[in-house]
Amino acid sequence: MTTFSAISAQLEGQAIEVPSWAYGNSGTRFKVFGSAGTPRTVEEKIADAAQVNRFTGLAPLVSLHIPWDQVDDFAALRRYAEDLGIGLGTINSNTFQDDDYKLGALTHTDSRIRQKAIDHHLRCIDVMDQTGSRDLKIWLAEGTNYPGQGDMRGRQDRLADSLATIYAAIGDEQRLVLEYKFFEPSFYHTDVPDWGTSYVQVAALGDKALVCLDTGHHAPGTNIEFIVAQLLRLGKLGSFDFNSRFYADDDLIVGAADPFQLFRIMFEVIRGGGYGPDSEVAFMLDQCHNIEKKIPGQIRSVLNVQEMTARALLVDTAALTKAQEDGDVLGANAIFMDAFYTDVRADLAGWREERGLPGDPMAAFAASGYQEQIEADRVGGTQASWN
Ligand code: PSV
Ligand code: MN
User: Fold this and answer.
1) Which residue is closest in CA terms to ligand 1's atom 7?
2) Strands lying side by side in the sheet with 237-242
3) Is any atom of ligand 1 closer than 6 Å to the C-beta of 69?
4) In this predicted structure, what is the pLDDT of residue 1?
5) Domain 14-313+344-377 sits in CATH 3.40.630.30
C-alpha cells in the first residue's frame, strides 16, 4: 500500500469552504435552540469561521447566504474577513423565504415574480463583484405538492429562461453552480430534483455553469460516488455541499454518519481529477449544528474531510488497476479497503505540527478560551438564525 509520506505533499493546499449559517442557530421544524456565544452579526459569524482556519489551516473561505448575510458595504466586509486571514467565498441566493415565492420563483407563472427572483440573483452577482467571490450557488425550493398542481414541463422551460438571464450577467471569472435536491419543501415534484436535471439546465447555459452536489440531497442507497465520477467525466462538477445524513437532508457533520461514503466520494474525486491545484472543484460544507457547539462542529467537519482525503490518496491505484483488469474481484476490493481501514490520525497530527498548526485542533480550540470568551461577550442582541 502507498505510505503516508508518499502522499503527504498532496494534502498541501486542501481548502474546504465553511458556511456562515453553520455559526448561527438552526434546528428542525420542531425547535430552534439558542446557544450561548451565537453570533449576532455577519462579522461575528466571520470571526468564528476564522477560528476554524486558524486551528486547521483547512478553511480559508467563508460562504455567505443572501439575504441572511446582507450588509451595507460588502467591500468593507471583505476587508474585515481578510484582516482575520480568510476570504469571502461562494454567494448563495435565497428564494425560499419570501411569500411571493410560495408557488415558485424562477419557475413562477407570473412574470413579475420571476423577474423579482431574477433580480435577486443579479444583486447576488453584484455582491460577488465586491466580495471577490467566484461562485453563485443556486438552490431552488421550487416544485409542487400535488399531481396536476403545476405544469412540470412549463416550469422547466421557464427555469431555463430565467437561468439564461442570470447566466448572462455572470462575469468571466465567475461561475454559476446549480444545486439539486430530490424533495423538500416540495413533495410531489421538485424542479431540480437530480443531477441529470441540473446537468441539462447548466449544459444549456455554457462553460461557466456547473452542477453543485449536496451529499445530503439523495435518496437512501444512492451511489453518490458514481454521480461524482460521471460529472467529472462530463467536466460539469462545480462544487460540493458536504454534510451527512441518516435519513434525508439531516445536515449533520460530514463523515459522521458514514465515513466510508466520504472516503468513496473522495476516491472518485481524486480519480477524476477533481482534487489538487489543477482542479476548480469547490469543496464546501453545508451543515447545521443544532445541539453541538458550532465552531468545534466545523473543526471536526473539515478534519473529517482531510482524513478521508488522506485515506483515499493511500489507495494503491496501480495495484488496484491490475487487480481490476485481472478480474480479481476480492483482491481489488481488499486493496480498496486496506486504504480505508488505515488510521492516518497520528500521521496527520505530525503533518500539522510540521506546518505550525496544532496536532490536535479540537483540543487546541478547546484550550484557547475563544468559546468561553464569546459566551461571555455576546450578550444581548438577536442571535443569527435561518429566519
Ligand atoms: C437546501 O437544503 C440547502 O442544501 C441549500 O444549499 C441551501 O443554500 C442550504 O441548504 C441552506 O438552506
Ligand atoms: Mn446544500
Assistant:
1) 139
2) 18-19, 61-66, 87-93, 135-138, 175-179, 209-214, 237-242, 282-285
3) no
4) 75
5) no
Find where cell 483515499 sits: 312
Q: What is the number of the ligand 1 atom nearest to the C-alpha of 214?
A: 4
**pLDDT tens string 107-145:** 999 999 999 999 999 999 999 999 999 999 999 999 999
Domain segments of the chain: what residues? 14-313+344-377
To test the pocket of ligand 1, the residue of 92, 192, 242, 288 to mutate (highest count of ligand atoms within 8 Å of its CB) is: 92
Res 171 pLDDT > 90: yes
What is the pTM (predicted TM-score) of this model? 0.98
Joined grid coordinates for residue 165: 438571464
DSSP state of 201: H
CA separation for the pair 174, 179 (Å, rounded): 16
Identify the residue whose C-alpha is closest to ligand 1 atom 2.
249
pLDDT in tens, 173-183: 999 999 999 99
How many angstroms does the Cα of residue 5 sit away from the middle of ligand 1? 37
Does any ligand 1 atom lie closer than 6 A to the CB of residue 179? Answer: yes
CA end-to-end span of the chain, whole Å? 49
